[in-house]
């Protein structure tokens, strides 16, 4: 069955919901598991889930793997191992809302990378949007001290999450630029497999994953299952389907929903966000919309003239 543009929008939105919920659920996983071990457990379930569906739906095409194996390994290392390793490590010292807000700036990074690859200069309004979105993130990271003039401190986790978001931007562009003749399902499956293998090697090098796994609580293991199946397998698949049907730029804009979903989930859990967090989210999303070209200078001027 061919994926329509309308269905691609729905699937991409579902993907961002899973990712938005991951920020809160990961905190449960990290309650009794070290970050790299938790990330490996997550992708253990993710790889099993996605490959069962992959083999059933399409079957393994050796020619696709032979043609793209280098790209799959590199993209798996950057977009799966890199992004998710940074995600788990970073959430040890930053809040889910702050992390979600940092990740929300990824569409702008994606557009910058596209501009570099295709050698086209971004419009001025998009540069303004990038600056505005970064100010919104900085407002939350500094807890409002950026405006109040107090001592500015950023958690190391914020920096790690930001580096991970750069990796995801590279992955998003790379799946379209460097992978050829591969379906979204095949790209998702192979990059996830290679990324999981790399994560396992890192975990064995920096932690004791078998010992840590046995010491983990049921709550942490259930959290890993959720973010493995929903927040990884289905989210990655739906995201790549959106890219294949609607393109990188139109798909990347859905990252705006990640901090919104994270905020809604936090509220449903009884955790009330601070005023600074809410203001920062609004400023960041406005900046990202400007950076994505959804809000243009013409639209702004038309809105002002009507008033």
Automatic annotation (TrEMBL):
InterPro entries: AA-Vitamin_Transporters, EamA_dom, EmrE-like
Membrane topology qualifier: Multi-pass membrane protein
Pfam families reported for this sequence: EamA
Start and end residues of each EamA domain: 7-141, 156-290
Superkingdom: Bacteria
Alphabetic keyword roster: Cell membrane, Membrane, Transmembrane, Transmembrane helix
Bilayer-spanning residue ranges: 39-56, 68-91, 97-117, 124-141, 147-173, 185-206, 218-239, 251-272, 278-297
Subcellular location: Cell membrane
Stated family: Belongs to the drug/metabolite transporter (DMT) superfamily. 10 TMS drug/metabolite exporter (DME) (TC 2.A.7.3) family.
PANTHER family, A to Z: INNER MEMBRANE TRANSPORTER, S-ADENOSYLMETHIONINE_S-ADENOSYLHOMOCYSTEINE TRANSPORTER
Protein name (database record): Threonine/homoserine exporter RhtA
Species of the source: Xenorhabdus littoralis
Higher taxonomy: Bacteria, Pseudomonadati, Pseudomonadota, Gammaproteobacteria, Enterobacterales
């Amino acid at each position: 069955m061919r994926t329509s543009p309308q269905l691609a929008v729905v699937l991409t939105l579902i993907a961002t919901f899973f990712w938005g919920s991951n920020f809160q659920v990961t905190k449960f996983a990290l309650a009794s598991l070290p970050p790299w071990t938790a990330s490996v457990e997550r992708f253990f379930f993710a790889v099993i889930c996605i490959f069962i569906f992959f083999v059933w739906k399409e079957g393994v095409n050796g020619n696709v793997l032979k043609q793209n194996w280098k790209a799959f390994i590199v993209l798996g290392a950057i977009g799966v191992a890199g992004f998710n390793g940074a995600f788990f490590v970073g959430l040890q010292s930053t809040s889910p809302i702050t992390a979600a807000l940092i990740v929300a700036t990824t569409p702008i990074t994606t557009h910058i990378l596209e501009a570099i690859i295709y050698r086209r200069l971004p419009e001025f309004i998009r540069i303004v949007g990038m600056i505005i979105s970064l100010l919104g993130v900085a407002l939350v990271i500094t807890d409002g001290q950026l405006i109040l003039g107090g001592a500015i401190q950023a958690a190391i986790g914020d920096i790690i999450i930001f580096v991970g978001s750069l990796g995801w931007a590279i992955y998003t562009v790379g799946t379209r630029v460097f992978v050829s003749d591969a379906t979204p399902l095949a790209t998702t499956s192979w990059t996830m497999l290679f990324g999981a293998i790399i994560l396992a090697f890192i975990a064995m090098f920096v932690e004791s994953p078998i010992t840590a796994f046995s010491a983990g609580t049921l709550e942490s293991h259930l959290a890993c299952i959720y973010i493995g199946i929903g927040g990884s397998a289905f989210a990655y698949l739906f995201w790549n389907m959106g890219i294949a049907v609607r393109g990188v730029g139109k798909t990347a804009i859905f990252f705006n929903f990640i901090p919104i979903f994270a905020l809604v989930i936090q509220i449903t859990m009884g955790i009330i966000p601070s005023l600074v967090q809410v203001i920062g989210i609004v400023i960041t999303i406005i900046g990202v919309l400007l950076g994505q070209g959804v809000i243009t200078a013409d639209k702004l001027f038309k809105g002002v003239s009507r008033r």
